[in-house]
Amino acid sequence: MTRSVWLKADDAVGDWDARRRRITAGLEAGVDWVLVDEADVERVRELGSVNVAAFRSGGDVHVMDAEEPETDAEPDAVVVGKKGEGDGTVDLPQDFSGSADLSALRREEEAETGAYIRILDEYYEAFAEQAADEADYTIVIGEDWTIIPLENLIARIGEETDLIAGVQSAEEARTAFETLELGADAVLLDSDDPDTIRETVAVRDSAEREQLDLEWATVTEIAQTGSADRVCVDTGSLMEHDEGMLVGSMSRGLFFVHAETAESPYVASRPFRVNAGAVHAYVRTPDGGTKYLSELESGDEVQLVNTDGQTREAIVGRVKIESRPMFRVEAETESGDRVATLLQNAETIKVRTREGRKAITELEAGDEVLLYYETVARHFGEAVEERIIEK
Fold first, then answer.
1. Among the CATH numbers 3.20.20.70, 3.40.630.30, 3.50.50.60, 1.20.1440.230, which is that of 4-208?
2. CB 37 within 8 A of CB 57
3. Is the CATH code 2.170.16 the one for domain 215-384?
4. Beta-bridge partners for 39
5. How far apart are CA 57 and CA 34, in angstroms?
C-alpha cells in the first residue's frame, strides 16, 4: 500500500503569509498533497511541484459542497465537503439518518470523486461510510473520538476508496497508519510546525518500507578467482554504519555487503558507496525485484537495508565499473542450499558476520555471514513460479 501525507492549508490556517509558510515547510519536507482554498491554487503551484487539493475548484482535487450544483470546472478529481467556517466540515443535523444528498459525488464524466467529513458522532461516521461507497477519496476528521471511528471505517470500507485520516502530530499519523494493522491510506496533517511536518513525512516513509527477514549462512569456501569487472554503486544518500545492499550471483540468496562507512588509515570512507561485486550479480530493488549490477545507471532506485532487515530507498548517482581482482564466496543456508557471489579482493569490502563487520580479505570458511534467502526463481528480476537452476 502506498501511503501519502496531505497538508491542510486553507483559510482556517490564517492569512496568506501564514499559509505560505506552512506550504513551504510541507514542500521542503516532501508532502504529497496540499489542501487549500480555490484562490490559493495558482499561488501554491508557483511555490513548487505538489498535488493541490482545493475547496470549490481549480485543484487536482476539488472540494465542494455535496448539496450544491456542480460547477463548470473539470478538475482531475473531486473531494466533496461542506465549506462552512473554513474548516471543510459537513454540517449535518443531530438526527441525521444517513440519507444526506450524495448526488454531487455521482458525476457523469470520468473524474475521481471524494468526501470530506468531520466525525462528531456515530451519525457522521455512518455518513462517511455511505459517502465512501460513492467516493474515490474519503477524508475523515475526528473530533472528541478518533480511534474507534477510524477502526470502524477501516473495517467496513473496502478498496473502493482511499481513506484519509485527519491528524495533528506525527504520532497520530503513526497510529492512523497502523490502526487494525491495515491503517489509513493517507493522513491530512493540520500543523504549522516544520518539525512535525517532517516527522509526519518520515512516518509515511517508514510505514511504506519493507521489513526483510535476514538469516545466517555458513561460509563453505572463499577463493581468489582472478579479475572481473567490478561495480561500485554510488548513491545520493549517506548510509549508516549498519547499512548496505543485498547482492549475489544467485537471486535466491543475496549477501549483505556493508557500505564503505568505516574509516581506514589508507582510504577515506565513502558512506554513499557500496562496492557490490561483479557486473553479472543481482542487487535488490525497492519493489522487491532485482537488477543486474551492469544495468544500473544514474537515476535508478536501489534498496538499502540494515543488519536488522529494515529497508529504505536510494537513488543511484553514479556507477563505477573497473576491472579488479575478485574473491568467490560460497555459503550454505540453514536449509542446506548453497549460494555464492563474487566480491572484490580489497580490505574496504566488508560483509556482516556473527562477530560484526569483517573484511572480505579476512573471511574464512566456517564464518557465518548475513544474507537474504528466498526460495523463488526470477525472470527479468520478477519472482516467478517455475524451476530455474542457478549454480
1. 3.20.20.70
2. no
3. yes
4. none
5. 14
Which one has a higher pLDDT value, 376 or 232? Answer: 232
pTM higher than 0.85, yes or no?
no
Per-residue pLDDT tens digits for 195-244: 999 999 999 988 878 899 999 999 999 999 999 999 999 999 999 999 99
Length of the chain: 391
What pLDDT score was predicted for residue 124? 75
Q: How far apart are CA 116 and CA 33, in angstroms?
A: 15
Strand partners, 152: none
Beta bridge partners of residue 382, listed in sequence order: 379
Sketch the domain layout of the chain as residue ranges.
Answer: 4-208, 215-384
Q: Which three cell numbers stand for residue 66?
A: 455535496
Output the pLDDT for position 78.
44
Residue 105 has pLDDT above 90, yes or no: no
Q: Considering only CA atoms, which of 123, 139, 134, 144 is closest in space to residue 89?
A: 139
Residue 91 above 80 pLDDT? no
Q: Evaluate whether 236 touches 312 at the Cβ level (below 8 Å).
A: no
State how far the Cα of 127 lies from the Cα of 131, in Å rounded to an integer: 6
Q: What angle do CA 133, 138, 144 make, to 5 degrees?
A: 115
Contacts of 103 (CB under 8 A, 6+ apart): 66
